[in-house]
Amino acid sequence: xxxxxxxxxxxxxxxxxxxxxxxxxxxxxxxxxxxxxxxxxxxxxxxxxxxxxxxxxxxxxxxxxxxxxxxxxxxxxxxxxxxxxxxxxxxxxxxxxxxxxxxxxxxxxxxxxxxxxxxxxxxxxxxxxxxxxxxxxxxxxxxxxxxxxxxxxxxxxxxxxxxxxxxxxxxxxxxxxxxxxxxxxxxxxxxxxxxxxxxxxxxxxxxxxxxxxxxxxxxxxxxxxxxxxxxxxxxxxxxxxxxxxxxxxxxxxxxxxxxxxxxxxxxxxxxxxxxxxxxxxxxx
Amino acid sequence: xxxxxxxxxxxxxxxxxxxxxxxxxxxxxxxxxxxxxxxxxxxxxxxxxxxxxxxxxxxxxxxxxxxxxxxxxxxxxxxxxxxxxxxxxxxxxxxxxxxxxxxxxxxxxxxxxxxxxxxxxxxxxxxxxxxxxxxxxxxxxxxxxxxxxxxxxxxxxxxxxxxxxxxxxxxxxxxxxxxxxxxxxxxxxxxxxxxxxxxxxxxxxxxxxxxxxxxxxxxxxxxxxxxxxxxxxxxxxxxxxxxxxxxxxxxxxxxxxxxxxxxxxxxxxxxxxxxxxxxxxxxxxxxxxxxxxxxxxxxxxxxxxxxxxxxxxxxxxxxxxxxxxxxxxxxxxxxxxxxxxxxxxxxxxxxxx
Lengths: 284, 353
Fold this sequence. Notes:
heterodimer; A: mainly alpha; MetI-like fold; 2 domains; B: mainly alpha
């Protein structure tokens, strides 16, 4: 999509308001990016340099060892493995299950489909906290406390929001796709897997990225289900690190940067898809 | 429940399955039986010609959602409602206590404080976020070069969410070395102690929430670019000024998007947890000024092990969110504009690639 296209028609704006808008944007951008750059600068200072550095964005000391020291102070590789497992498995699981379910709602016309879809939508209003106590007891009975399973397993059953997104996406694809395949004698599963799924690239990327971002930063569930070093994830490690080392700011900032890095990298590699995906989720 | 699980675990033990894999394999076996029964039922009905192929396929495809709903949402809701009338610490047998939990909630000062904190946060932060993200989106919607750069800059902070954001802002708001007070000092102002001051902790968290409005801004920008140009052209011919166009065309046209964002923003704000938890190590801030509702619920369930009371709290939260959402929906009739006869081709196509 073209972002430079003005929605206000061909009429050029008078110069005054345009300069005003541009100035506001520049000032706002500086305010917004400043904490982020300051975080990087602080991550590269020595502990003593923090008070001298103050609000400047120049690291001064270039203490690269903060990164190795910060990550060395806890079992980083274990936490990283746990974070990767509890993020990537849900990404794959939720994309496939939501796509299949969304496809059924969009394309298979049967009685009761509308009512069921209304129920799917209404569960989006339900705060997860209402069910967190029984879910905890359920996973306790399943003997799964302090494992990654309580975070991973529910994603295999689809997410209401993603089911909604996939349904909207498939409704916009031409009907003729299914008609032709049905005449050729293909089953519904084949139609989904060999026709619709390959056409879903944009929505698959968008939902995968959204799921990645939310599960990589997942804290509430991790805080409830994970208690030992063996299965803790990076956000949990960072929170624990904050409570132990809250005086060693450069180490904290370095660690926080490393935890954030995958999301930032993902954003720069898939910026167009992410912006498109977020715009799509806001659809009325 | 646990009887079945123990039986399955014993069975798997005899098969020499590693101990760590027994719980998940037991669950997989249970689920395989459930889906096997669903599949067999649908197949039988199909063979007996009670249902069509389409019906069988539909229910088979949506069965994962239905099973997931029963296990992780519907069932737990019923269970949590029952639990909310009980007293249970996970160890001793549960005792039925009637409305005792709800009565306790009425006179619990900490709960009152947490409702105050959460509602203040929701009612102040959501409008501020809306005004900020919509305002920036409006500014970006004019024809300026480098909008893509601005968009990236404004979105970038949204990538630093959750714990990382809380950790960063504890430092940004640090009374002596923090960014905010450092800048204030340049202007000769002695800043407050922010997160260490009961009066300033919540305002600090609200300011912090404004830093991640990038996602909303992108949604608004997409909405703004969806407004048909012909409307502006017609208005310009009729001699309408820019302020008129903004008020009578732009805002009504994007009002459904604003509405969507306000509803999701309110629900999200009522569920705030991480900020309160990380800022004061599971505490709730100076004199409980950051005791968010869900944090208090979490403490009751997983620190004090009052499962019944926590369930009652969850239902009170659910009721509050429903009331808030209903209020916004009722109010929306006055300011949200829907084109009922929206031509099909006006529907935005998917923008991604």
